[in-house]
């Protein structure tokens, strides 16, 4: 078996609420391998988003390790951690978070521009991702001119434009109707598989979860396998 591209070890996340502590993760462990799609299910408040944000190096957990491409991202300084995140991780949110003043092409190219890629090269890479996601005819449209499903496709292109090895998605179809949810999930799954990226996708949609390679749930702060009849 190949080496994991993302390993989470002994992850704890405790939130302070006044004098009380709320522990949502307590020793969570995960290995994510190249090319696999892993679903993450569980009720709201179970710790799915906390796990994803820690895995993406967007938040600092209370304790634990997040090992990406052989490096513990949590042990790095802020600048090195940011560089690792930009290089190795793509993140898709429930809400697209596109910049309204930019076109679909400009939004998708933004991570490459931030990373210092030239404008022409960034636009070509973004165009290729958008075209692969069926958005070739909407490159110059701004987010307000796109449907919800189209906006999420742009967000997926933006997450994948750096060719990250890890894609993390937090309820990427949660704001869409069933028909568009299915279309966006298929677009995300196909794009990840084509790129050979590992994906961890949190979802409340159990029908979508069952179509992934394996499914995990958060129980008492830890990750355990989930089955449809569980």
UniProtKB/TrEMBL annotation:
<comment type="similarity">
    <text>Belongs to the ABC transporter superfamily. Macrolide exporter (TC 3.A.1.122) family.</text>
</comment>
<dbReference type="InterPro" id="IPR003439">
    <property type="entry name" value="ABC_transporter-like_ATP-bd"/>
</dbReference>
<dbReference type="InterPro" id="IPR027417">
    <property type="entry name" value="P-loop_NTPase"/>
</dbReference>
<keyword id="KW-1003">Cell membrane</keyword>
<dbReference type="GO" id="GO:0005524">
    <property type="term" value="F:ATP binding"/>
</dbReference>
<dbReference type="GO" id="GO:0005886">
    <property type="term" value="C:plasma membrane"/>
</dbReference>
<dbReference type="InterPro" id="IPR003593">
    <property type="entry name" value="AAA+_ATPase"/>
</dbReference>
<dbReference type="GO" id="GO:0016887">
    <property type="term" value="F:ATP hydrolysis activity"/>
</dbReference>
<keyword id="KW-0813">Transport</keyword>
<dbReference type="Pfam" id="PF00005">
    <property type="entry name" value="ABC_tran"/>
</dbReference>
<dbReference type="GO" id="GO:0044874">
    <property type="term" value="P:lipoprotein localization to outer membrane"/>
</dbReference>
<keyword id="KW-0997">Cell inner membrane</keyword>
<keyword id="KW-0472">Membrane</keyword>
<feature type="domain" description="ABC transporter">
    <location>
        <begin position="6"/>
        <end position="230"/>
    </location>
</feature>
<dbReference type="GO" id="GO:0022857">
    <property type="term" value="F:transmembrane transporter activity"/>
</dbReference>
<dbReference type="GO" id="GO:0089705">
    <property type="term" value="P:protein localization to outer membrane"/>
</dbReference>
<dbReference type="InterPro" id="IPR017911">
    <property type="entry name" value="MacB-like_ATP-bd"/>
</dbReference>
<dbReference type="GO" id="GO:0098796">
    <property type="term" value="C:membrane protein complex"/>
</dbReference>
<keyword id="KW-0547">Nucleotide-binding</keyword>
<keyword id="KW-0067">ATP-binding</keyword>
<protein>
    <submittedName>
        <fullName>ABC transporter ATP-binding protein</fullName>
    </submittedName>
</protein>
<dbReference type="InterPro" id="IPR015854">
    <property type="entry name" value="ABC_transpr_LolD-like"/>
</dbReference>
<dbReference type="InterPro" id="IPR017871">
    <property type="entry name" value="ABC_transporter-like_CS"/>
</dbReference>
């Amino acid at each position: 078996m190949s080496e994991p591209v993302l390993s989470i070890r002994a992850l704890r996340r405790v939130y302070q609420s006044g004098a009380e502590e709320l522990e949502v993760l307590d020793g969570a462990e995960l290995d994510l391998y190249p090319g696999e799609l892993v679903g993450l299910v569980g009720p709201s408040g179970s710790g799915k988003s906390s796990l994803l944000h820690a895995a993406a190096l967007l938040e600092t957990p209370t304790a634990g390790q997040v090992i990406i491409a052989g490096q513990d991202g949590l042990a790095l300084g802020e600048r090195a951690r940011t560089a690792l995140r930009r290089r190795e991780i793509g993140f898709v949110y429930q809400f697209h978070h596109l910049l309204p003043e930019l076109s679909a092409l400009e939004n998708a190219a933004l991570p490459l521009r931030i990373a210092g890629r030239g404008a022409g090269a960034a636009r070509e890479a973004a165009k290729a991702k958008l075209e692969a996601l069926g958005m070739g005819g909407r490159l110059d449209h701004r987010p307000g001119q796109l449907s919800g499903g189209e906006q999420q496709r742009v967000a997926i292109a933006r997450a994948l434009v750096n060719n990250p090895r890890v894609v993390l998605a937090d309820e990427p179809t949660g704001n869409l109707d069933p028909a568009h949810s299915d279309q966006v999930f298929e677009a995300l799954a196909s794009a990840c598989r084509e790129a050979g990226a590992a994906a961890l996708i949190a979802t409340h949609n159990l029908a979508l979860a069952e179509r992934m390679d394996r499914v995990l749930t958060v129980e008492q702060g830890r990750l355990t396998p989930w089955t449809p009849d569980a």
